[in-house]
Amino acid sequence: MPPLPGFVDLQVNGHRGVDFSHPALTVDDAARACREVIAAGTAVFLPTLITSPLPVYRRNLALLAEVLRRPEFAGRLAGLHLEGPFLSRAPGAIGAHNPDWVLAPDAAVLDELQSWADGTIRLITIAAEVDGAEALCRHARRLGMAVFLGHQLAGEEPLRRLAAAGATALTHLGNGLPALVDRHRNPIWAGLVNDDLAATFIADGHHLPVTVLKAMLRAKGLERSAVVSDGTLLAGMAPGRYRAMGNDVVLEPDGRLYNPHTGYLVGSSFTLLQCANVLLAHGLCTAEETMRLCFANPLRLLGLSPQDVPAGPLVDYDAEARQFRPVTPAPS
Q: Given 108, 145, 229, 308, which residue has the most CB atoms within 10 angstroms?
């Protein structure tokens, strides 16, 4: 396999000490984090903001829009992903997000968010079962945004309604859920059987046990699946205890990142290249299938094609080791 253009990540919350949702984020820090994500093998990605207070959105959306406009990131930063604030407040479904900052679906608020972002919001994740979600989805589509569904307790009927309203995929299916759910009637089964919605999966080996990920990929099918890193400011950091995204967190040597008080995971410490190598290491996919999940399918969900990816290979495949590697090493 020749050198590859790199991977496409729809969900990058930060990298190496930089949190795109932090109220003290700077342009220089955001740009540095973006460079390091690219150097680690990600050719195209969406900087992602999690549920935040409106003043943080006002500040950080404008700041990140400035970074997106830099010539060095042309074609690399395909827009912004808002994971929130229109999510479920239910425990478990809200995940590591702060429920106090969740808002009811409101088209006027979404207009304001897009205005602060100078039109760069490309994707928004909302909860399907929340009152007003269908109208908000239609409005987001009119604004040119892709709509994914996640951090929710939605069953089959809300997912059908939102797919009809223009939603196209499920954000990190199998996560953003309570630890215990009904064994038969739950958002996982509802999402797997909906053929109108693709699904993204966090393939770091921690968010989904390998056997679960294998079953989900089989059920959803390669054509309706994509992999995201859900990488956070702890990606690329040494194991230890940290304060991140409003949580006390522990980063284990194997990369597991979690809140020791709740036991819930708090995003990922992996890059998309590392996730791709998890798929290969456990025999879940061939190299070619992995490229579909980590390159072609995410591009399609953004309405892009391989021709839209800037020239210059970022990733090589070592057939003997069965691993992807950056063509140039990530910054130390």
A: 229
